[in-house]
Amino acid sequence: MTNTPRENSSQSLAATDSAPAAKEIILLPWGAPMRWLRLGWRDIATHPGTSVFFGLPFLFMALILHGVFHIGPEYSMTMISGCLLIGPFVAMGLNDLSRRNEQGIERDFLGSLTCWKLHLSSMGILVVVLLVLTLLWGRVSLVVTALFFNTNIPSDFDVMEAALDARNWEFVATYIIAGAVFATLIFSLLVVSIPMILDRDTDAISAVITSFQVVGKNTAVMLLWAALMGLSVLVSVLLPYSAGIAVIGPLLGHASWHAYRDSVHRIGSSPTLNPASADSA
After folding, report:
1. Burial of residue 93, with CB atoms counted within 10 A of its CB: 0-12 exposed, 13-18 middle, 19 or more buried
2. Higher pLDDT, residue 10 or 207
3. Are residues 123 and 116 in contact, defined by beta-carbon separation less than 8 angstroms?
């Protein structure tokens, strides 16, 4: 039986780099995050309709979080956990679009939409780890609140009112520090793991270890990248109806592919990023 064009395309993508290969973590220049954003915009310009389609789940999640935050902010962490069940699969679809664009492979909307099926085991493990971390984050948040206010959450406590009261600065500082620790863990876990699973069909543990290695070797650059991502998301959700996230979400998804490609190389392969010319790329 012969394969259809879509099957051939999917098989070629899955087969590429599936064999284990020695990797090298690259020391990145300061200009790398801006390069990733520029390449992300290029990918959106190449596939504008498809990219914005992938942005709709981000918009939907932002609207839900916005509503929950105003109605019952104590449930926000639970909703974030739900978003983390969907986000990685959307991100992988965007990574697949960038990969096809980079390799000159014909666009396949359905293939990008369902590319996670070829890596379901690794993606499932990754999502479970994310979910556990987020639930722990939520539990720590409740414990911090209870320690400072001796309250029965969520029935009789206004989180925002407490946070905006200057007398509660110790609570706010502790809450932010706890959140920053978990946010750093999640960022470090995700920064290159999803595109690596797509590119190499590697297991989730190896991808996560590599992601932490990238952050460890490029801590300052990755902090800059995290700050740019956070600022972009913040600005996008401040627009009416959080409409900007429908574009910023795909932009960051595309950019994450280029962050991976610049950060992790096979030994003996040609780097995609030339540190000397990164700022002019």
Report:
1. buried
2. 207
3. yes
Q: Alpha-carbon distance 249 to 80, whole Å? A: 15
CA distances from 203 to 16, 124, 134, 241 (A): 15, 10, 21, 38
- pLDDT tens string 70-122: 676 656 666 666 677 788 899 999 999 999 999 888 878 888 999 999 999 99
What is the spatial distance between Cα 27 and Cα 278, in angstroms, rounded to a whole number? 12
H/E/C letters for each residue in 45-81?
A: HHCHHHHHHHHHHHHHHHHHHHHHHHHCHHHHHHHHH
DSSP state, residue 23: E
Q: Which of 20, 12, 28, 58 is nearest to 225 (CA)?
A: 28
CA distance 59 to 57: 5
For residues 83 and 45, what is the distance between their CA atoms, to the nearest angstrom?
A: 26
